[in-house]
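Feature request, filed as a ticket because there's no other form

It would be nice if the structure record came with a short human-readable summary line next to the tokens. Right now we just get the raw output. Example of a typical job, pasted below so the devs can see what we mean:
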Amino acid sequence: MRIMGIDYGSKRIGIAMSDELFLTAQGFDTILNRTSAESIEAIKRLVMENAVKEVVVGLPISMNGTHSQKTKEVAEFTEELSRALSVPVRNIDERLTTVQAERALLDGDMSRGKRRQLRDKIAAQFILQSYLDSQRKG
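Raw output as currently delivered:
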């Protein structure tokens, strides 16, 4: 059993998976977000293939705690995903995860093109790791 982390973007959706002990998150895949239905079907397939027991989706809340149009879009996607899956789907605050991902990739001295390919997957990894860490503390 694993937990899946998702960084939702209008062009790409980053996917991360936990290890089987729920200790660490690893970047797993990036899905091109052509249509909501196609993306949900691809996620559904990954959930089944990887024995996922729970899905966490990063919710982009602004630094001052307000919700934007993007927040609403992600919340709607999460609801749609929740209806399509037979496992729990929840949102978690994803503030700064994309910034952390970009910084990690810059520290790795990667080219701009390579960073663009990996950014969403790495952001999903930060989202999932944050969730896993919070579960151990609770």
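Something like this underneath would help us a lot:
The chain has a mean pLDDT of 88.
Residues 2-137 form a domain with the Nucleotidyltransferase; domain 5 fold (CATH 3.30.420.140).
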